[in-house]
Design a protein that fits this description.
Helices cover about 35% and strands about 15% of the residues. It is an alpha/beta fold.
Length: about 210
């Protein structure tokens, strides 16, 4: 059994947008522009329970400590599908128009030479805000809105699942500071996962 968004558009809409993604990437390559996939993720300060190996017939179930409360770290990120390089802001602040404006500035700093930066992103209300659209126009960043309820077409969603697996799956941090440091180290040393990410972050977008 697999859960999918109940309001996901039909296959034709998804297929047409997948073609749009590939065409945009090819166009950007020719013009030395940049394409990014962007989305925030909210990592809760707690263990993500997962399967582990255990000797057959063992009577004692493996256990791991967990935390109480719902404190979390918010990450606003963008992923380059060509070199698999992420750009991110790590914060405890809520994601809103002001944070997205700041993040667009970080993207432009990351790619100062690119004439146009194409950013694929979802339809969150703050992404459509006038402040965000005005800032994007000023920075020559073209916002490319995905069809509603289509996380399968946003490449960065796979990176967030990978992050959760590496940082939170069956891992306990006895302080929030250690949890935050682990997330920062993930991005700082992301090259260590290069082979895994090359297999994961391909341009084969699933149609649901």
């Amino acid at each position: 059994m697999r859960l999918v968004p109940g309001n996901i558009p039909d296959r034709k809409v998804q297929e047409e947008f997948r073609e749009n993604i590939i065409n945009t990437i090819n166009k950007a390559k020719k013009n030395n522009d940049v394409v990014l996939f962007s989305d925030p993720t909210h990592q809760i300060y707690n263990v993500s329970n997962g399967y582990v190996w255990q000797e057959v017939g063992a009577k004692n179930t493996k256990v791991i400590s967990s935390n109480s409360g719902r404190r979390r770290i918010n990450i606003i990120g963008a992923l380059n599908p060509i070199n698999l390089k992420p750009t991110s802001i790590i914060t405890e602040s809520n994601c809103d128009q002001e944070m997205i404006k700041i993040f667009l500035g970080e993207i432009r700093k990351e790619y100062p030479i690119a004439k146009t930066i194409y950013v694929f992103l979802d339809n969150a209300k703050y992404n459509h805000g006038i402040k965000v659209k005005t800032e994007a126009e000023k920075l020559n960043i073209q916002l490319m809105f995905l069809p509603p309820y289509c996380p399968n077409l946003n490449l960065i969603e796979r990176l967030w699942k990978f992050l959760k697996k590496k940082i939170r799956k069956n891992k306990y941090y006895n302080t929030f500071e250690k949890f935050e440091k682990a997330i920062c180290e993930f991005f700082k040393n992301i090259d260590q996962y290069k082979k895994e990410l090359e297999r994961l972050l391909t341009l084969n977008f699933e149609i649901i």
